[in-house]
Amino acid sequence: MSADDREQTLQKLAPDQYAGIFEKKEKKKTGLPDLPGVKDGVVMRFAPNPSGPLHLGHARAAFLNDEYIRRYGGRYILRIEDTDPKRVDPEAYDMVREDIAWMGLSISETIFQSDRFSLYYDIGKELIRRGGAYVCRCDNEAFRDLKMHKTACPCRSQSPEEAMDLFEQMLEGAFAEGEAGVRLKTDLTHPDPAMRDFPLFRVLTSTPHERVDAVVYPLMNLSVAADDHLLGMTHVIRGKDHIANTRRQEFIFRYMDWDIPVYRHYGRMGIEGVVLSTSQMRAGILSNEYSGWDDIRLGTLRAMARRGIQPEAVRNAVVEIGTGETDIQFSWENLFAKNKEIIDKDADRFFFVPDPVPVTIKGCRPVTAKAMRYPGDEARGYREIPFTGSVLLPADELASGADYFRLKDLFNIRIVREDGNLLGEYAGDDLQEARSRKAPIIQWLPEGWSHPCTLKRPEGDVSGVCEPEAVASPDTIVQFERVGFARIDGTGETAVAYFTHR
RNA sequence: GGGCCUGUGGUCUAGCUGGUUAUGACACCGCCUUUUCACGGCGGAGGUCCGGAGUUCGAAUCUCCGCGGGCCCA
Q1: Which nucleotides of B are covered by protein (CB under 7 A)?
Q2: What are phi and psi of A244, to 5 degrees?
Q3: Nucleotide nearest to A326 (CA to C1')
Q4: Interface predicted TM-score (ipTM) over 0.90
Q5: A364 contacts: CB under 8 Å, gap ≥ 6
Q6: Which residue from A121, A150, A167, A308 has the least number of CB within 10 angstroms?
Q7: What are the start-end ranges of the H helices in A344-430?
Q8: Which nucleotide is nearest to A341 (CA to C1')?
């Protein structure tokens, strides 16, 4: 019996149950899935390290949380996680602020973890008081061995009083770096060794912190758990790489009898052809491989901004990817498509002639071409481009072997090659003629009139010329016809445009 | 060494409380439109739903075993 037959038979035999069984399950997924446990509004966070500028990986976290804040209302906390001096670049504070402004997040408040060490100490003390933590003075290697064998180290048997006393000594600077740390008592027989008595605080004196005067530093699991509770976080959305941290933090929550937020972990994201690691990018900048944090070959937000990628395009792209736990390969094509949706309607069209070759055109009086700024939209007006007898044409078009062209918005020409010299002959105004000959319709510019322009692309620069109007004002996005979109960056003697995408 | 997560066309994604011609987007190809290889419209190709076994009338969906990718303790 086919599926349809069964369905029809059942409809006859048991019409009352039929509806329930074969009910069309249709739910239009619009964007992200709902979050469980939402009461009135949510409190969520974006919590970057100030170790460098923000990149696409950060944008995913930032926008995903932002989307839920928009959906449910509530508070969106920007938490600068600067407790580890080894992962703080003083210049990054400003960069992070700028990048967040660019994204347009609806941040309701900003806090710096470096301002909150005393809160972390208080929670450390409370954990000790509750018998949940001890001061471990074992050598790291030795502890690791014990841990692997599910064996307690001698320090673990401290009474809370002893532990408290030792912690106070730590805070007063009695121990050198590496000599003492605070560990949480979890479960030494936990099948996952990553859970066994993980560290909460350490002594750190070799790397000073610009904003903190301390010898005892909280480790991220302690500071993150503390702040997630103190700031009333209801939902936490972050990468899968934090799953183990989530479990560790839950140990702290349970010791302290705190309500545990709802966690969501999305998959890892690789980006084709791009290094996302801040340290690797920094190394590349120091070695002059990259021009800076906004080098267009990098995956930083400032690099994308420079290329003319719109923040909303990034938002749309990461929302489409969603919160799935599968590891994905982010594709630029995807982002470009989103970006084009946004910029196409606003970008005026202009001519850009890459690798221009001068060609004298015989047989036509000077005329002025009128070309629409935006095809089909008279209201946006026309560009007027003078033809004075000699034009610049793209080298690759001339090299293609074709000898009959339509100069867009002008007229047809025939190319004549004489002793290695290129000459053009006027070949009539008739567009239909050009079409029937399948002549390439190409961009052109008058010599002398046009503006030198370097088009910067990740694969390399292209030098050419463009219409003066195209590079009249910086930070505009134009479409160079038959080349692609570009963001005008510099308007000097030789203008600079960054290639966005086709 | 241990633990955890994950595997749907090239990329992303829906479906995953079992029954669909396996959804949509991007990319690709063709046609239409068009003084751009853009935008728009129409159409097309492209999938062993990682593999195997099992449960079932029926498995992308459930179970088990493999394999691949990723992460944590490092």
Answers
A1: 1-8, 10-17, 19-21, 24-27, 34-40, 69-74
A2: -65, -40
A3: B6
A4: yes
A5: A387, A389, A411, A426
A6: A150
A7: 395-398
A8: B39
Single-letter amino acid code for the residue at A325: E
> How would you class A462 by CB atoms within 10 Å of its CB: exposed for 0-12, middle for 13-18, buried for 19 or more?
middle
b/e sequence A297-336, b meaning 16+ C-beta within 10 Å: bbbbbbbbbbbbbbbebbbbbbbebbbeeeeeebebeebb
Q: Which residue has tokens 């000699």?
A: A390
Strand B contact residues in chain A (47-106), C-beta within 7 Å: none
DSSP category for residue A175: S
Angstrom distance, A10 CA to B18 C1': 17
**Total count of residues recorded for chain A:** 502
Alpha-carbon gap, residue A130 to A134, rounded angstroms? 10
Task: Work out if A25's Cβ lies within 7 angstroms of strand B.
Answer: yes
Q: Which nucleotide's C1' is closest to A244 (Cα)?
A: B72
Output the tens digit of pLDDT for each of chain A's 502 residues: 444 444 455 555 554 444 444 443 334 446 799 999 998 899 999 999 999 999 999 999 999 999 999 999 999 999 999 999 999 999 999 999 999 999 999 999 999 999 999 999 999 999 999 999 999 999 999 999 999 999 999 999 999 999 999 999 999 999 999 999 999 999 999 999 999 999 999 999 999 999 999 999 999 999 999 999 999 999 999 999 999 999 999 999 999 999 999 999 999 998 888 888 898 999 999 999 999 999 999 999 999 999 999 999 999 999 999 999 999 999 999 999 999 999 999 999 999 999 999 999 999 999 999 999 999 999 999 999 999 999 999 999 999 888 999 999 999 999 998 877 889 999 999 999 999 999 999 999 999 999 999 999 999 999 999 999 999 999 999 999 999 999 999 999 999 999 999 9
